[in-house]
């Protein structure tokens, strides 16, 4: 029997919608590492490989953003759109599972 075709675009859009609708301050606070991972995969999926040049010495703010955020995106290299979308969805599932596990752990110890 034929396997259903995974629609990466639809799954990615659903994950993006969920993240856009999360409250800024909730019981779960993502680490910088987690946020950067989402950011880099989002940019790769939406904009493609990073072509933003590192700003020069006279643009310290731009340079800071580049070093903190853009560099992580650049390190994804030529990852294709579908893979970036799939990785974004997988990352979300992973984080959601961690949140579920931490809630059930807290209930056990309470
Ligand atoms: C809570 C509820 O406690 C219970 C927990 C449930 C747990 C569910 C688990 C699911 C996973 C959650 C993981 C969260 C990870 C957060 C990632 C944040 C990046 N993805 O349009 P702008 C870029 S919830 C990645 O001005 P908005 C965009 O390209 C408590 N990046 O911003 C731009 O960069 P640049 C925790 C994205 O529309 C920059 O972000 N709550 C996405 O005002 C700003 O864009 C949260 O963690 C995207 N989908 O805000 C809230 N979209 O300029 C998470 C845009 O370089 N959500 N970008 O192009 C948010 O922080 C915001 O909705 C936002 C967009 C930053 C994603």
Number of helices: 4
State the name of the first-level CATH class of the domain at 39-110. Mainly Alpha
% residues in beta strands: under 5%
Could you give the count of β-strands?
Answer: 0
Helix content: 55-70%
The helix/strand class is mainly alpha
How far apart the termini lie comes to 48 Å
Q: Main sheet, how many strands, which sense, barrel? A: none
Uncertain stretches: none
| Average pLDDT reading | 91
Report the bound ligands by name, code or SMILES. Answer: stearoyl-coenzyme A
Architecture of the domain at 39-110, CATH level 2?
A: Up-down Bundle
Order of helices and strands: HHHH
The CATH topology annotation of the domain at 39-110 reads as: Acyl-CoA Binding Protein
Shape: flat
Walk me through this protein's architecture.
The structure is a single chain. Helix 1 (8-21) crosses helix 4 (81-109), helix 2 crosses helix 3 (60-74) and helix 2 runs antiparallel to helix 4 (81-109). The chain starts with 7 loop residues before the first helix and ends with a helix. The model has no long low-confidence stretch (mean pLDDT 91). The chain has a domain at 39-110: Acyl-CoA Binding Protein, CATH 1.20.80.10. The longest helix has 29 residues, at 81-109. The protein is mainly α. Helices cover 67% and strands 0% of the residues. Bound molecules: stearoyl-coenzyme A. Stearoyl-coenzyme A binds at residues 16, 19-20, 22-24, 26-30, 34-35, 38-39, 42, 92, 95-96, 99. Stearoyl-coenzyme A (ST9) is lined by residues 16, 19-20, 22-24, 26-30, 34-35, 38-39, 42, 92, 95-96, 99.
């Amino acid at each position: 029997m034929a396997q259903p075709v995974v629609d990466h675009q639809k799954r990615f859009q659903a994950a993006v919608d969920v993240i856009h609708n999360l409250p800024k301050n909730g019981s779960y606070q993502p680490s910088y590492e987690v946020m950067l991972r989402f950011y880099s995969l989002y940019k790769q999926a939406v904009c493609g490989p990073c072509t933003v040049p590192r700003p020069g010495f006279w643009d310290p703010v731009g340079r800071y953003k580049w070093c903190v955020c853009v560099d992580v995106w650049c390190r994804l290299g030529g990852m294709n759109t579908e893979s970036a979308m799939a990785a974004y969805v997988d990352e979300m599932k992973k984080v959601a599972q961690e949140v579920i596990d931490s809630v059930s752990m807290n209930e056990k110890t309470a």
